[in-house]
Structures
1.
Amino acid sequence: MTKANPQLGKVTFLDAQGDLQAMEVTTPWSRAEVYLHGAHVTQFQRHGEPPLLFLSQCSRFESGAPIRGGIPIIFPWFGKPADKLGQHGFVRNRDWELKEVVSPADGSVILRLILPEANDSADYGVEYVVTIGNALSAELIVTNRTGHKLSFENCLHTYFTVGDVNAVAVTGLKGVEYLDSLENRQRKTESDEAIRFTGEVDRIYINSPLAVEIRDETFRRVIRVEKESSLTTVVWNPWIAKAKAMSDYGDDEYQRMVCVESGNVAVNEVTLSPGEASRLKVKLSSGALS
Ligand code: BG6
């Protein structure tokens, strides 16, 4: 049995990048940073381990622009549907409010943030609960505030740090159908036990509720992505040409990250009845690669 650690978690406001506000959270096991802009977790690092989350050296830190790296919250749409303005929804560009900080006796820290109401978000109640401890958990809770059915997409677009993308395998998706975003969302089936990266990858794995692992031979680390109420896993690495084309991303940074995103996208979009809530949850943990 693990003994409760007497040391409590701590939250302090940081002198953050740009004009943005952010918090630093320290716990007996880890350190994290969370920006109010986008309710964006930009860092999580267990003591003695490389950072779990990847954050671009070229990221913008300004209102109106998303942060590149960490965990952008994608809602209420994924990608760029023809009838919507902007890519990946709008909540990653909003300033959220910190509603509550809880410090449970085990030493972890729970932050509860809410999306302030605006004209384009009035249909939804949106809350985000981040738990920082030995692992990092995040839960996006959306309530239908209208008197009719409401459909949307959601995704926790997580950027993970890896030692060398050439020595990384993503496992847990064999036999799963995916939409290949590089080929007009053509439907294909994953035939490989392990996804490896030798070029650009941009895939929406559908009907995939199970955990996924990122096996990193360079860091000798395995990252486990466990999820609840998520039927979609997106796997993305921009590779060389797209990296060069992104102004907020370093030309070589594709070598040190992979995105494994948990959500409900495309055929897996969520539909809520009036008053109903959805809870998309991920738990990100790490350990030694055996
Ligand atoms: C991924 C998409 O989720 O996000 C990619 O599958 C996209 O197609 C990537 O390029 C990054 O999007 P953005 O808007 O943050 O540059």
2.
Amino acid sequence: MFPDLSQVYDSTSATLTGGNRVERRLSDLAGCFQDEAAWKALVEESDPLLYAVTAVEPENHAGGLHYGLGVLYPGRVGEEYVMTKGHLHTWRDAAEVYIGLRGEGAMLLEDWESGESRLEPLRANSIVYVPGNTAHRTINVGSEPLVYIGVYPAQAGHDYAAIAQRNFRKIVVSRDGAPSLQDR
Ligand code: S6P
Ligand code: ZN
């Protein structure tokens, strides 16, 4: 039998029919932001919702694909822009495609072996290819919600532990109102 083959998304409301929605608040990103005092103060004040992902997982075999619609809200923690936890795929070879739908964002990519980092724009009409063996984190550098879709192999898996042990080498901060890639 066919699984659910079609879904409908709306980039304004950042909704997707079907799928499971997972929400992440600021408190879920312990240890991610450089300015720990700013992180703690904001968690104690309101612990805002940072992002939500609605994932559709039609098949789990080796050739299958999963995809998710993400909405990442704007804001800053200290000078650092609001971002996702970031992960490597458990199956390190698994690549991913991100399609920007709305808002002004960027993908922070880090080759996990060499540590080489890049910042790629993610906005409406842009597509970012995330190669295998590359840690990836999505960042909202604008003032409205960033909405995107990610498509990845069903067996990719999410390895958050590797990032918890060794955070990304670079951070993205606001400098004179513009995003700037800096050493952590
Ligand atoms: C999954 C894909 C996205 C992220 C989402 C949230 O492979 O990369 O759907 O899960 O952007 O980010 P994170 O780092 O919290 O999973
Ligand atoms: Zn991924």
3.
Amino acid sequence: MAFPTERMRRVRGNAMLRDLVRETSLDAGDLVYPMFVVPGRSVSRPVGSMPGVCQLSVDRAVEEAKEVRDLGIPGIILFGIPPDKDAVGSGAYDPAGIIPQAVRAIREQVSGLLVITDVCLCEYTDHGHCGVLRGEEVDNDRTLELLAREAVAHARAGAHVVAPSDMMDGRVGAIRRALDAEGFESLPILAYAAKYASGFYGPFREAAESTPQFGDRRGYQMDPGNGDEALREVALDLEEGADIVMVKPALPYLDVVRRVKDRFPGVPLAAYNVSGEYAMLQAAIERGWIDGERVTIEILTSIRRAGADFILTYSAKEAARILARRGGRSA
Ligand code: PBG
């Protein structure tokens, strides 16, 4: 069958029919909002390269968490900036550290919101790398124990999910064993499984004050040229006990999102629409070069279409507002 019998435009020509046959859905319930928590009270410090995003003290983070929940967004992921940094990232696994404080406050004061914590050392080390150093190299195996302690500290404070983002080998297994040993065998791990060494993390490093003081993260994060390797990373994390896997960044790696979904169809898959992707979008919106509402929804829809079950995105609040105005419809 071909033209003139077949006419693709028949279905497209009617907006209601277009909505009815749309393959990919997007709603606020597919989104997770990242937040940056800093010491102090009543602090709300805008992040220059991420318009609309602020570093927040715990009291302000509680307020924003309520706002997020009231927009119908099911979860947040928390990043912490400690009062002091040192070579071994002590603030990361301090049971009274910034993230345990924030988790406790949010769990106490905000119901009906999933609290995920990012598990990594880079925000807590004075050198800005994701683990402890031996010379100028990150020492993989010594870092594992510290990441495990960090995950347990988050779990004890009440985190619903822990999300290791460091890319050390063996960290999912080390965290799983430590959680199990402490009675948290039911606590899920969301593994940043395929995390690329990306220039798109620049604005995040301003927000999290985690820019490496020397070198870069290519020794532990993935080479942007590799796709097959992402499948290996995902397989390894699943073997070690990951419950949900993630591809990061999202837009430059939509092919990877799709390949992971196809290869591991029953595994929940997240994608992280990272800071640089958000900054590019906001810059173009500010200049009036693109239609912000339209492109925000188009981007998130494309990440869902590629195969992500849910998306970590700084656009979550804006997207939820747009979708609510449209009666929940994603087009
Ligand atoms: C910590 C971490 C990073 C991001 C999430 N967790 C930064 C990095 O690896 O340098 C980036 C998130 C974003 O850019 O929005 N390791």
